[in-house]
Amino acid sequence: MKAKIISSAAERTQALVFSTGDEVVSTLQDFAAKEGLSAARFTAIGALSDVTLGYFDWQAKEYRKIPIEEQVEVLALIGDIATDGAKRVVHAHVVVGKRDGTAHGGHLLEAHVRPTLEVILTESPAHLRRVLDHESGLALIDLRSSG
Known about the structure:
The protein is globular, with a radius of gyration of 16 Å. The longest helix has 12 residues, at 24-35. A hairpin with a 5-residue loop joins strand 5 and strand 6 (103-123). The protein is built from 1 helix and 8 strands. Strands 1, 2, 3, 4, 5 and 6 form a 6-stranded antiparallel β-sheet that branches. Strands 7-8 form a two-stranded antiparallel sheet. It has one domain (13-145): CATH 3.30.1330.80. The chain has one helix spanning 24-35, and strands spanning 12-19, 39-57, 62-68, 72-84, 87-97, 103-123, 130-133, 138-141. By secondary structure, it is mainly β.
């Protein structure tokens, strides 16, 4: 494990309220770009009309898609926003609940809001930068280049 203090200063927190039809990942990425965010974390609750989860297949080095094409409750949505070059990258995991009470979770690939999603986003004054990890094939936060 590696650790680095990325902030001891005050943080800025915003409430984002998504509307029916909003696509979660792209809307967060667009917001981060517009606001110039380079390091942030968020949590959210609400509901979705559909969601595509991902499970990272270590051998294939890619996400296996798990589509859920029905109304679900967002039981927990957590994630972060970092930079990969000039691009803002949203990394989020979600647990959703179906009508019968079963829960499904994984990496959030895509989701559409219905009727709302309430996001609490906290910006850090430090910069988190993602760097390609050749072993996994994923862009991971690199603490050596952050700060």
